[in-house]
Each structure stands twice: as C-alpha cells, then as structure tokens.
C-alpha cells in the first residue's frame, strides 16, 4: 500500500511567462512507498493518457485535462482553467496556494487508482540571478574550446552546478558538454568551426548528476548565458538580410576581427570608415562597404553564431554574413517636407478593399470576396463589390452575380472597366454565388451621384477557361490580354492546375488560335510560383512579364517569347512572394525607353510547401532589381539595390512628381507568416537592347518587404507601402502563423524611392508617418486624382475575423508634402486627346517656378501587390511667355500609352496639380471579331451552368 506524505507547496508566478504558475516543493521529501525525493525540485504531476508531460524546450502546444489546460513552454508549464477562459494571472496567489495542495492530492490519488500516471521532475535548472533560462546547443571545436575561462569534470554534474560555478567565478557563459564536462568563459570563440548553433536535439547526453537534464554531447555544448543588455544598433541602421559569403566577399571595404564583436561594434566601425553597409560573420568578423558586390540571400536562421562579445546576439554564421544597412531613420513628420496620414472612414466591404480602380474624379471601384461583409445589398445579403465615394468616404453596394474574388481588371479604349476571372462558387449567408473563374464583368463608370452597376452575361461574355489569379494588360489597340493563373484555387500553382496560356478580350483570331487561348512555355517553366505575374505594355508593342524569379518579353502579335536574365540572387517576385513592381516613367528625355523596377518579395526556395515556410522567421527580400529594357540594358542584366527593410505584399506607387512610394506589406512570410523573411532586393532594368544587354541592376531596401505595393507618384518617385518583413502570401499554410496569416511583422512606415538619385541615396523614410494598421495579404494602395495615396484592405483570413491579423475595414489617406503646398491649377482640358495632336490649357503657377511638366498617368487596377496598367508618361509641353498657357502634344503613339482613360497632372517644381480625367485616342471600342467570338463560345463551356470547381 502506498503512503503519501505531502510537503508544503510554494506557488510562484513565472516572470518569464506572464499568466503562468510554478509549483515549487521545498521539504525533506515526498514519500511514495519507499521512494523519496530529497532535493528541492519543480514538480509536475501529470495524468498519462489525459495530458502530456511538460517537456523542456518544446514548441508551444496545447493539451487538455480536467480541470486545467497546460501549455508546454520553455522551462515552465503554463496553466489555464479550462472552463473559465481567463488565465491564472486573473487569480490571486492566495487562491492558487489554497488550491494547489488539494490539486496535487487529487492527482496522486488518481494515479494510484488508474495506475497510469507519471511523476516527473522538471529538467529546468535553478538559475542564479541574472541568468537567462533560454539555452542554445552549439558546436564545440575539437582543437580550440568555445569557452576557455575555466573547466571541470564531475561524475554528478548538473546544469545547476555548472551554471552556479561559472556565475560564482564571474563568468558570463556556462556550457555543459558530454554529460560530465563544464566550461566557463566571457567570450565565445568561433575558431575552427566552433560556436555555431545547431538543433537542441543534438545536445542529447544526460547530465551525470540529473538524467532529466541534457549536458551537451560529443563536441556539442548546452550553453547558458548571463543576461546582458544587448548593445544597441546605432540609430539609422537596420538589419537587412543574411547572405552566403564566399571567396568573392559580399562587402569589399574595411574589415577586421575582434573577440568582443557585436553588431553594434561592427556598425560603429563601418560608419567611421564612411560605409553605408556593415556585416558580421563567424561570430567575430566585421565587413564594411557601400555596395553589395554579390549576394546570395539565405534564411535568417543561417546567421546564428553567437557574437564573441555578447552571446545573446548573433553575428552571422560560418560563411554567412548578416548585413546591416544605413538609412535615414523615420522621423516625426514636421515642416514643409512632412508626409501626413489621416483616417478615411470605413469601407464597409470585407478586407476594406482587395481589388480597386479609380473610376472617376470622385469614385473608385472596389471588389472583394463573398463573405460575411457588413455592407448589404438591397436584398439584405452581404455585398462583395462597391463604389467608394472619395469625397464622403462611403460605399454604395454593387450587384455582382459571379464570384469576382482573385480577379484582374483593366479599362478598354472606350472607357469601360472590365474585370476578368475570379473565384470558385461559394454558398454563404443563405446565398449561392456562381463560379467566377471564367467571369467577365463590365462596369461603365458614372459620377458619385449615379447608380451604374456591374453587367454580366456568361452565356455571351466569358473567358475561354478558368483563371484564378491572372494578370491582364491593356494593349495598343485598346483590347486586353489576360495572362496566366490557375484553373482552381490553391495556395500556389502546380502542373495539374496550371493555366499556362493567354487570351484576349474581345477574343482575337491570331497566331492560329481563333478566339481561343494561346499556350505559353514561360508559364510552364516558372512553376510553381507564377500567378499574378507583373505585366507591362511596352512602347515596342511587346509585353514585359515577370513570374517566380524569371522574366520575358512577349511579342503577342507573333506569339514569340524572349527570355530576359533571371532576377539576381534568386529573388522571387510574384504570389505568394509578392514584390512591388513599377514601370518607371516614360519621358521625352529618356526617349520613352522602358525601365522596370521590382522591389522586395522573397528569396525562399520555390520547392518549399506552405507548411514548410515560417511566418515569423523567413525574411522577405530587401532587394530592388532594375533593368533598362533595351539591348544594352538586357545584356548587362539586372541592377540591384536594397531597400532599408525587407518587404513582401507591398505596393509601389508612382507619384505625380515621378517619385515612387513603396508602401504596405510585411517583413516576413510569403503571402503566409512570421519568420521567413521577405526580400529587401530591388531589381531594375531598362527594357531596350542596351538595357537588356546590361541586365538587372540590383539595389537593397533598408528592410526586407513582402506583399508591398509600388505606387508611381506624379513627380517620378516611387512609394513602397504595405506588406511585411516575414512569411508569405495566403493564409492557413505556414508555420508560426498569427491567426491564419502566413505573413507577419508588418512594415508600418512607407518607403520613398527616387530613381533619379545615385545608388545609395535613392531610399528614404525621412518625414514619413508610421501607421498602426498592419496591411498584409489582400491590402492595396493607389494614387488618387488629388495626388494623395489611398491605403486599404488586409485580410489574411477565410472570412471576416477580428483576431490578429484582423479583417481590416479602415481606410487611410497618405498625403505627400505637396498636398499642403501652393499647387498649380489648370482649366480647359479637352475630354478627348488623340495621338500627336496639340491642345492648350490655362494654368496658374507661381511666378518663380522653374520646371513645368505635364504628366499623363494611368492609375491602374490594383490587387495582390500587382498594379495592372499603372503608367506615367511625360508629354511634350511649352509654357507661354506670360506663363498662363500650356501648349501640350498628345502621346506620340498608342504603344507608348494605350488608348483609354488617363489623368493629367501639371507638375511645377515637383509639386503636382490635382489631376483631371480625359480619354486618349478616339474613344472607340477595341476591335471586335465576331467569328472569333462565335468560335470561342462554341468551344468553351458556360460557367454559369452549375456550381463546379
């Protein structure tokens, strides 16, 4: 018969894990038959079969038993009442103490009767004051020890004994190895491969004095450190990306080694040598430079060697360089150069806005998904489309009939907005929404006071096949090409659901395909990540197309694909690793030569499945790749720059003054979560023969970004906004998700890129406001006729959710400094301007102005970080002697600006006017081939015939 002798139980809160309790026994022992525990231990009594043992250093996992819920957590058990949903932090210690001993009694008695319970001693050591409970398993070199201060061997070694001995000796680090060896030191040596962190499972040898503790293994050390205040990163510097560093160094400037190395020390040294880039490697090495010579970005977890000068920080890895970049840090916006952010109401549409297109001076089309949206149609059912009033910040519901989510859109030459493709059928809220994957939806914009609506007729107007996540572009004849996508919704593409083709609206009889889709080898070669490609119509009538880490020129009139150099460093730029992309402004000064800029995305391997991507740790890319699309530019390849931070799912906005605003997105994930970091790379290419010969130019943003938007501004700059730093696009796939979001670590501060400045000076966040709204998957940003930038959306969920990251209804307006300046005005704009024709407008501009430009812009159709048809073209103009009249020449030809609606900004000394809408061309409808339409209808199925996938 068992005899139970219960000691007093000390109940403590754990400061490292708020809301938890620890049961600490201090007594002569607990008697269980003839077995006694005579030491002070943390004791957990757990019912086998009903719950799990709180194991050391395990992932956060939930297990339930009556009456408590225990979550495994490093060194502690988190205890919550199962039926009351509040944590133990809401219960007084007195109450905990009164309930603890009866609880232990209950568990031990149940153990006796069920004969299936386990008594376990926690492996967590009792730590001296100031020591961190977090440990690492690291490699110890066979020729030079990682810790060289003091060592001893004991046949009864415990972690407690080793750490206490090192602490009493005044050391900062304690390491246990091979079960019986203890080492102390004040710095970590990385000589001969030592110091690198490995999986905790490699430290698998039981301590000789406590079999529940692990004391390293052969040349593997269980390392604890005394908590130190990490040396701060100097102001104005950001961590950017981890990269493979080989014989050709990533940074080629000043370098040194130091056994007191920290990132802060390295950055300080590089700053003293006038470097804008700093990198730490191998624990004790520092490298400086002003340009990245050659980078092969890799996972952030590859840069996990402890710094020789501070084991709580990481200093790169073996042949792995952690790069830091200098950037003008965001400041509180003040003075005439301040950008401002203001609230813009509530859209009333799920995700606020997933697809948007500015339609008139005061309205914008919004399309979303059929879900539990608060905006209701006249029949009382939730709407999934709306007209947004830019003046009143209110929404008027539209009456779509097919599921328009995950679609594309463009204006035709006659001004009709057409929405292509979409989502499978869905039944929600008592309403069946028909399959929209072959959908074609027409919308003729009207003033805010009007009642214009969506027109659909799938029996006569449809696509040839299902297209989920396609991209489309307006062509020089006023029609639209629809490219790529999938035949069914999935996290990413595969051969079984790929739609490697393109088609036209209205259908064309071209290249032997009479009204039907035309196959594309490019969209077979770019699997699996090739949906929502970046597509730009070029002045030579061809299309620039980017998918995965590849790019091509498509001569759609001849069905010829010309491959361009791949994006440098494995930068992946489309869903689910969405990068911000723009076609830089076309001007008479650059002879209307196209140059493409792609910023952010991810360097994550495209062989990984969604569940293998870490939402919190897989970084986005900070790379910007740029190429002039002529023969010389393409031959030279992509030119690379780096953003101040990685971004994914962000947007690039071309401003009226020609600058580019990069906004939205996050730092991690793909369109999925927290730790897989986005890319900070920007790739840029001039798309002519010289530019293609020169290839991609690569820059790096100050931080990685994924899911961002690139918005062209009227002054020629680019705004990069929205998105995050880690993870990927999509939801409910990745590891370590926040709610369902595959991405995390939102980038709250926009980034401005000036393509005219020298490399190293193009990015700034100075005077940029910081939002408190995370804009991740399904967020948008667009330039408005006023010159402000509308920001909306974000919904990485299957339906409306309030948990992080929540379905986001709030709308914001970002106002560049020119919004508060004295702005030029004009009158007399004709409603229609044909190519090469001359017209005049009356202007009011400051007498002291120097530069006067006229910018024609297409504000585009925006969704999923893709800005379809976004374009800026500078028109030839002459200012009269009295400075009151501008004589302007229409665009030279249709390939430079496709016929259809446009917006005219008059930009004076970088300050744009409010834009006015006009039609470019004759306003005629695009060519219509009745025979091609008839053949398409005869050989394709009517998608409205019934719900199907």
Automatic annotation (TrEMBL):
Top-level lineage group: Eukaryota
Q: Name one Pfam family in it.
A: Glyoxal_oxid_N
Keyword field? Membrane, Signal, Transmembrane, Transmembrane helix
Positions of the WSC domain: 131-227, 236-327
Q: Which residues cross the membrane?
A: 32-54, 106-127
Annotated signal sequence is: none
Q: SUPFAM superfamilies from the xrefs?
A: E set domains, Galactose oxidase, central domain
PROSITE patterns xrefs: WSC
Task: Report whether Ribonucleoprotein shows up as a keyword of the record.
Answer: no
The name this protein carries in UniProt is WSC domain-containing protein
Supply the source organism's classification: Eukaryota, Fungi, Dikarya, Basidiomycota, Agaricomycotina
């Amino acid at each position: 018969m068992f005899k139970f002798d219960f000691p007093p139980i000390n109940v403590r809160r754990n400061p490292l894990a708020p809301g938890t309790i620890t049961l600490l026994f201090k007594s002569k022992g607990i008697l269980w038959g003839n077995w006694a525990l005579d030491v002070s231990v943390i004791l957990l009594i757990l019912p086998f079969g009903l719950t799990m043992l709180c194991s050391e250093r395990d992932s956060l996992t939930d297990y339930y038993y009556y009456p408590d819920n225990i979550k495994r957590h490093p060194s502690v058990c988190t205890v919550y009442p199962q039926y009351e949903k509040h944590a133990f932090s809401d219960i007084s210690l007195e109450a905990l103490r009164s309930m603890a001993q009866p609880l232990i009694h209950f568990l031990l008695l149940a153990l006796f009767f069920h004969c299936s319970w386990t008594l376990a001693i926690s492996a967590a050591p009792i730590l001296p004051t100031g020591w961190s409970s977090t440990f690492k398993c690291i490699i110890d070199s066979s020729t030079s020890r990682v810790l060289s201060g003091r060592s001893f061997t004991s046949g009864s070694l415990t972690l407690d004994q080793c750490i206490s001995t090192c602490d009493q000796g005044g050391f900062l680090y304690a390491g246990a190895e091979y079960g019986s060896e203890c080492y102390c030191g004040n710095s970590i040596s990385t000589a001969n491969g030592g110091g690198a962190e490995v999986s905790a499972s490699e430290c698998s040898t039981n301590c000789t004095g406590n079999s529940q503790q692990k004391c390293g293994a052969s040349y593997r050390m269980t390392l604890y450190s005394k908590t130190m205040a990490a040396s701060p990163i100097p102001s104005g510097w950001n961590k950017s990306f981890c990269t493979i560093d080989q014989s050709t160094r990533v940074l080629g400037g000043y370098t040194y080694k130091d056994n007191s190395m920290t990132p802060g020390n390295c950055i300080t040294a590089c700053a003293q040598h006038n470097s804008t880039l700093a990198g730490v490697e191998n624990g004790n090495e520092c490298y400086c430079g002003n340009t990245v010579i050659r980078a092969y970005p890799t996972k952030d977890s590859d840069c996990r060697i402890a710094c020789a000068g501070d084991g709580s920080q990481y200093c790169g890895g073996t042949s792995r360089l952690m790069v830091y970049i200098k950037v003008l840090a965001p400041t509180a916006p003040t003075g005439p150069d301040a950008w401002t952010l203001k609230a813009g109401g509530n859209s009333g549409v799920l995700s606020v806005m997933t697809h948007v297109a500015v339609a008139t001076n005061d309205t914008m089309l919004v399309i979303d998904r059929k879900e539990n949206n608060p905006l209701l149609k006249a029949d009382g059912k939730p709407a999934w489309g709306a007209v947004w009033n830019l003046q009143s910040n209110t929404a008027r519901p539209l009456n779509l009939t097919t599921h328009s989510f995950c679609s594309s859109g463009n204006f035709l030459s006659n001004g009709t907005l057409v929405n292509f493709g979409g989502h499978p059928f869905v039944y929600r809220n008592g309403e069946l929404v028909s399959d929209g994957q072959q959908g074609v939806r027409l919308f003729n914009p009207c003033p805010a006071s009007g009642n214009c609506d969506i027109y659909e007729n799938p029996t006569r107007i449809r696509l040839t096949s299902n297209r989920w996540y396609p991209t489309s572009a307006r062509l020089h004849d006023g029609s639209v090409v629809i490219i790529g996508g999938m035949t069914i919704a999935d996290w990413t593409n595969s051969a079984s659901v790929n739609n490697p083709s393109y088609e036209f609206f209205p259908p064309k009889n071209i290249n032997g395909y009479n009204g039907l889709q035309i196959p594309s080898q490019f969209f077979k070669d770019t699997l699996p990540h090739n949906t929502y490609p970046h597509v730009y119509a070029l002045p030579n009538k061809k299309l620039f197309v980017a998918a995965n880490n590849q790019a091509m020129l498509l001569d759609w009139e001849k069905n010829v694909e010309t491959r361009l150099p791949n994006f440098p460093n494995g930068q992946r730029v489309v869903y689910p690793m969405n990068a911000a992309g723009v076609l830089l402004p076309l001007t008479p000064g650059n002879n209307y030569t196209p140059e493409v800029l792609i910023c952010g995305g991810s360097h994550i391997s495209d062989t990984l499945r969604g569940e293998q991507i870490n939402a919190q740790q897989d970084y986005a890319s900070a790379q910007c790749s740029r190429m002039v699309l002529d023969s010389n530019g393409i031959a030279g390849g992509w030119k690379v720059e780096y953003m101040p931070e990685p971004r994914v799912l962000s947007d690039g906005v071309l401003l009226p003054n020609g600058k580019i605003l990069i906004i939205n997105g996050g730092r991690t994930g793909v369109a999925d979560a927290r730790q897989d970091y986005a890319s900070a790379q920007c790739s840029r290419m001039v798309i002519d023969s010289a530019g293609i010969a020169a290839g991609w130019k690569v820059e790096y943003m100050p931080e990685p970004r994924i899911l961002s938007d690139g918005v062209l501004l009227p002054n020629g700059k680019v705004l990069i906004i929205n998105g995050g730093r880690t993870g990927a696009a999509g939801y409910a796939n990745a590891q370590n998700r926040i709610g369902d979001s595959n991405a995390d670590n939102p980038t709250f501060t926009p980034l401005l890129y000036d393509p005219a400045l020298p490399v190293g000076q193009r990015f700034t966040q100075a005077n940029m406001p910081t939002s408190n709204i995370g804009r991740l998957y399904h967020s948008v940003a667009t330039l408005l006729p006023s010159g402000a930038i509308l920001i909306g959306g974000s919904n990485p969920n299957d339906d409306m959710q309030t948990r992080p990251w929540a379905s986001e209804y709030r709308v914001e307006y970002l106002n560049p400094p020119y919004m508060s300046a004295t702005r030029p005005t004009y009158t007399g704009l004709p409603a229609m301007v044909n190519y090469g024709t001359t017209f005049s407008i009356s202007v009011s501009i400051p007498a002291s102005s120097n530069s006067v430009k006229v910018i024609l812009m297409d504000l585009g159709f925006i969704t999923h970080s893709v800005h379809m048809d976004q374009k800026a073209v500078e028109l030839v103009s002459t200012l009269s002697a009295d400075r009151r009249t501008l004589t302007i020449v229409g665009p030279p030809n249709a390939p430079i600006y496709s016929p259809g609606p446009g917006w005219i900004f008059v930009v004076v000394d970088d300050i744009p006017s409010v834009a006015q809408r006009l039609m470019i061309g004759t306003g005629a409808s695009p060519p219509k081939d009745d025979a091609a339409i008839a053949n398409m209808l005869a050989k394709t199925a009517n998608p409205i015939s019934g719900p199907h996938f």
